Amino acid sequence: MGNSLEGTVALVTGASSGIGAATARRLAQEGASVALVARRADRLAEVVSAIESEGGTAQAIASDITTRAAAHDAVEQAVAAFGRLDTVVNNAGAMLVGPFADAPDGEWERMVDINLMGLLYVTKAALPHLIKAAEQDPRRTADLVNISSSAGRVARPGTAVYNLTKFGVNGFSEALRQEMQSLRVRVSVIEPGNVDTELASHTREELRAGVEAQTQAIERLQPEDIADAVAYIVTSNRRVAVNEVFVRAADQTW
Ligand code: NDP
Questions:
Q1: Number of domains composing the chain
Q2: 95 pLDDT above the threshold of 80
């Protein structure tokens, strides 16, 4: 059994739906006070209510983290609310599927802005707090967990720019892991396979049926399956660093 997160504070980006919402809920069940960051305030409020109804502590922070100032402000709001920061889950992301050359203006930018720049801005703002938590916390450790993808390991036609962002997240996570090691801020990366969330619904309508057809035959992972992986990482004893977790749906070949 892992360490309790009682008395610690977690921040989860993209907590208004899917993997982020399930992760926020799970970290609250483990005892953390949780700051939930995303743009849709109404959806965040629903997740906060669900956490509170289970006896947990949570706060919604409505923010678009694709600008440096907003990401910094979201992290500072979490620290102001709960006084510290021990765990950050960089989960917010977008996947807009389609052949590279046909993508309308703005699609690559949306993925780069949230999957890469949002993740970098939140990380930069959070690191001083995580370093402090690792120095002072009775657990003497802090965690940064980046949600990459199987698309960060396996490139396929139709997801070139998504692959670019998620391969990027993997490289960044490994370099940062080494930079933070001596400070006891553990940096981990999770690569989920196909998970049943809203992610594919943002793909252009004319391509959506094709995306769904590709995954129809497999039993998809549930967001809670990825929340389990996050919980395993962040509740591990400080002598343990789970650097990378690749979780595919059991039916998934790619
Ligand atoms: P969802 O679409 O359900 O979740 C995406 C989350 O990101 C939402 O909460 C959304 O909130 C948030 N978000 C998007 N843009 C912004 C922004 N500009 N600022 C703040 N928050 C933002 O999909 P998933 O739960 O599936 O995705 C979560 C992560 O998991 C992503 O990084 C995705 O790439 C990754 N992943 C998903 C897989 C899957 O099969 N589903 C497989 C592998 C990885 P809001 O719209 O309210 O801002």
A1: 1
A2: yes
The string of pLDDT tens digits covering residues 112-166 is: 999 999 999 999 999 999 999 999 988 899 999 999 999 999 999 999 999 999 9
| From 122, 162, 200, 234, the catalytic residue | 162
Q: How far apart are CA 24 and CA 29, in angstroms?
A: 9
The pLDDT, as a whole number, for residue 2 is 64
User: Which residues lie with the beta carbon below 6 Å from any ligand 1 atom?
Assistant: 13-14, 16-20, 38-40, 43, 64-66, 91-95, 114, 118, 147, 149, 192, 194-195, 197-199
Run of H or E including 42: helix 41-53
pTM: 0.98
- Does residue 3 form part of some domain? no
Place of tokens 């196909």: 194
Residue 64 lies in a domain: yes
Q: For position 214, what pLDDT does the model report? A: 80
CB 81 within 8 A of CB 130: no
Write out the residue range of the structural domain in which residue 130 sits: 9-247
The CATH number of whichever domain residue 151 belongs to comes to 3.40.50.720
CA distance 208 to 124: 35
